[in-house]
Structure prediction request, 1128 residues.
Amino acid sequence: MKRNLTAAILAATTALAMPALAQERGGTLNFARYDGSRLIDPIYADRNPDIWMVGSLFDTLLRSSDDGKSIVGGLAESFEVSEDGKTVTLMLQDGLKFSDGSALDAEDVLYSLGRARNPDLGPWAGMLGNVSDVTADGNTITVSLSQPDPTILSMLATFNTAIVNKDVFDAAAGATDQEKSAAIFAAGGPGVGSGAFYMCGFEQGASMDFCANEHHWEMGADGKPLPYLDKVHFDIIPDDATRILKLQAGEVDAVEFVPFSRVAELDADPAINMNLFPSTRIIYSPINTRETRADGSANPLNDVRVRQAINYATNKDALIGLVLQGAGQPMTAPLMSSSTRLASKLDLYSYDMDKAMALVKEAGLEAGTKVTLTTLAGSSDDATIFAALQQMWAPLGIDLVVEQVDGATRGAKNRSGEFDIHTYGWVDDVNDPSQVTGWLGYSPVRSAVGTGWESAKFNELFEASGKEMDQAARAQQYAEMQDIYAEAAPLLFMYETPFAVAISTAVDGYVQTPLGANIFSRATVSK
Amino acid sequence: MAGLQYVLKRLALMVPTFILVMIIIFLLVRLLPGDPAIAIAGDKASDADLAAIREKLGLNDPLLVQFWLFFTNTLQGDLGRSIMMRTSVSSVILERLPTTGFLALFAVTLSLLIAGPLAFVAALNRGKWPDTVIRTVFQVGLSMPVFYIGLILLTFLAAQLRWFPVGGSGDGFFGQLYYLFLPSMTVALYTSAIIMRNLRTSIIEVLDAEYVQFARAKGLPTRLILGRHVLRNALISTITLLGLSIGNLMSGTLVTETVFAVPGLGRLMLEAIFARDYPLIQGLTLTFAVLVSIVFLLTDLFQSLLDPRMRLT
Amino acid sequence: MTDSTVTTVKASKVAPSRVQLALRKPGFMIGVIIIGFSTLLAVFPSFFAPYDPNFIDYLAVRQAPSWAHPFGTDMLGRDALSRVIHAYSVNMQMAVLATVFALTIGVVVGALVGYYRGVADMIFGRVVDAIITFPFLVLVIAVVAVLGPGLINMYIAITVVGWVYYARLMRAEVIAQMGNDYASAGIVMGYSDRRIIFRHLLPNAITPVIVYWMTDMALAILLGSSLGYLGLGAQPPQAEWGVLIAEGRNFITTAWWLSLMPGIAIVITGLGFSLIGDGLADLLRPRG
Prediction:
């Protein structure tokens, strides 16, 4: 470490202030969550409350940079993609250890990637579909691909490729991998991962504890291993109002998923920092674009002009004002959030009632056409969206009615196509636009998020972009796909929202990434 | 002995009841739109993945086969594995049962402590101001949705005055007493209002009855009359009502546990329904049915003890 | 025990009629006035409400109470007073329709099985057990999820479960009344079963049921509100007290009027029902 004279003098003269400058270590951060984890295992995590915690317990070979725009080293200190794009060579750091102090070596990497690739195990195996082989020579890991894959580095920075301890799995009780994983999770304790923490307490649906991993490789500003905290304690409090009260009563230090209607109030509280972390979360509504509805009746939304019209007639700024109290912005990239890489910046159906009226007239939409908006029962956001859309679309001759269902029913309707329009949301799991683009637009995946929309050109571009190693060409393909999608409007494009986390001023350094992951490794609590 | 015979007979009668409950819940969960496979694989899973999971869970088998499996496994004490929790249903239920049991008993105790004395005060002062005040206050308690009362108690007693913790559950008996006071109180406000009204009415009825009027006319002190006639009758009706409201009480825990973040069976039930976790919903329903049946049996036994006219048949 | 005919004759000479009695009970009269006025609001909400309850004004969101908006405005800028008034239609309808069928079925079944006992009582016991041991809210949530959310499906679900409570109460009361002298006297005198049940037992046994009914109407409003809170009851944009409270609950400290006003409406209506219930309890009590 270099230190010039000025700095030394400065340090000497401000010796009294030094404790404040030094990283404060120790303490417990109490964190109130909206929902609990059920199984934190890289390959089985499928719900956000599980996925977003994987990174605290397990390290990946690579990582997304802080701004999310590039890939940097993790457990692997260096990495290289071959000229032909078919081989990735990674160099593991020396002396890596799991949280129980046992060595993390290439064998664990092979084992972990083998699990991650196994399509009989977790739901994410498809993301590594191009990987044909993984081999190791000392600390050198070689990932071979059957075809060039521009997403491979992002995949190696994604939670499902995180490294687990082979010995722990070998020793765990259970006949299948699933049983072993459940047994390891139920037992808790250090050893299975090498993340900044290990799980040291778990009460299903009630609470969870993470304890500091003293063997963690990543160093803090004070030259000692991260994390700074001794412990993170999670309380699961599903009710929004109760969760916030818990913070106001000083019983917890941080509260996630603050309803946007409460943001201004908490922001005004001097003891609370109201954080709005940028996210890849988009709120949109799939539109059923099929010729007929599931019941066989004619579908007015089959006409692209009607879909464009309702997009124009939707005053996004007003919606953002009503639902998010201003904490959001209209979608500008039709297929993704503006935080996702390769996002276009389009003027995406800015509110224009004249255009909307002209379009419905051109389409010959009958006055009093009944359209059903399927919303989530009990969600006040959805109720607000419905009430606002009903009024906004009435001039078009659309009689919007509501159908409130629970999440499982909405999911079933999305798959069976028994809906006109329904509310939905998305957060990227991978630091790459391919996942969300495949989800929203590539029809073989899920009929373009259940809309039934299909474009041969779009599918062709998507498939080509999956092999395109040239950055500029790939960006061009994504720009084209976004133009096609915007024009066809299979969605009601709504808005992007940040992650609202209210944190006591005693806490510093907590981050929620654009992908939603909760990062506690650099967090501190002052006593 | 007649009593033992009665109990055995009642237990035997529970068998058809439980079978009926099993059939209803088995069919009902399968009628619900939505797919438990999504609970496992998530919204993002492909249709092929879901089909594979359904196959693995045995959801593609004929209904009769599925029911027979559920039925025979239950008889052997195996409620199956929870889809969302990935662990055995019985272990999840056993883990949460004490909390909900504590909450329910605590609420009943509080209800009786509140309603009992106040009902007497109200009945003895019928039509006068203490009566009016007591009844109006209880009416407010009775008329407020649980999720609202709960929030008001939390806002003022917990967050602002900090007398109680905001949600969660504690360790040990006293920890639970401390943590579960507000949720129990929320349930009790509602239950005690029902008990109070009923108790007051039945006390007044007894006080007005001819034999009591006669006893009063003979100059027997009121306290003696109360002790001899009123208490017994009041107890009978209160116990009947408590027995009746046990189902309500259990339902009440669904919302209360959610508002107060109490990790109990009620909240678990809501989560299970939303995740379409068939085995867990079935197991929880059966658990509720067994609990409620036991309470009913006890209610009837108490009743017959106190009132010989309620013959044990 | 005195002969009932003699009692009636005596009563009509000495005691005032029930209507006259009722008029002398201020509590009962207040209850009648509250429910009467609530019914008026329920039938003619537009006459009383100052604004269209569903009119959205983005520029007047969550305003505090003022002369223009006595209860303030909600998060969509809708007039809260108008929404509370329009909610009377739905909530009063809930009070009646969610209970009246359950009451009728329950009273008749309860009286019959209480009187005859025997096999009918046994079967009744099983049915009651099966229904009552089922977690109530779960059954309602499931039925509504299968049939689809909405008020009518909600009434069906509540009635399927609710009648049992009336029947149990009625049965217990009838059995208790059977022990009284007049019932045995009726049997000794050879009155028909129907006469004993409906002329003698029912009027004497029904008081607690009626009192419970009044409570149950208030409870039905509450239950409907809980379901509304879960999104399974009244459908938006229809205002409903439970939904209004749920909408306002996040603002207890900042915009308290949003949840308080519908809360007061529920309390007052509940109070009205219970005052009537208490009054009826007094009035219906057999005299003589």
